[in-house]
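I'd like us to work through together how a protein chain folds, taking it slowly. To get us started, please write out a protein record for me. Go ahead whenever you are ready, and we will take it from there:
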Amino acid sequence: MPIMPDTWIRRMAAEHGMIEPFVEAQRREGVISYGLSSYGYDARAADEFKIFTNVDNAVVDPKAFSEAGFVTRKGPVCIIPPNSFVLTHTVEYFRIPRDVLVVCLGKSTYARCGLIVNVTPLEPEWEGQVTIEISNTTPLPAKVYANEGVCQFLFLKGEAPPEVSYADRQGKYMRQRGVALPRL
């Protein structure tokens, strides 16, 4: 299962709309880097954040998720409380080819600050904006910047297309836009 290089990612974005909007080269000056890299694509956090809070003593239940467990903020920066968690989504919209599996990894700049991005797969033929889960593992408040790099996507090409893709089974997170909350 080879990892796909920048030339393939660029071609797939241009010819098949795999990533929109697509940034052809890595942007780094004064920002946390984003855009095309050697063997991946660094996606940006949008300016919408859902911060988990315990103000209403809500219980987080993936089978019966309640929005009472978080507050929504929109803006250029999100302050994640100590030992807390936030959801955001990518600026970019992804369309994954049938013979490709994508893995999302956190950026080292944030990891060095104690912010961990959940490792998430994007399955063959999934499409949408990616909901990003960020944990603040520190005892201090931490900042996340909108419209700057938040994670990197690695594109792994399968030996052959799968028998059943995410689109074939009509996955519950297909074509999501914005932060998609847990669904059963």
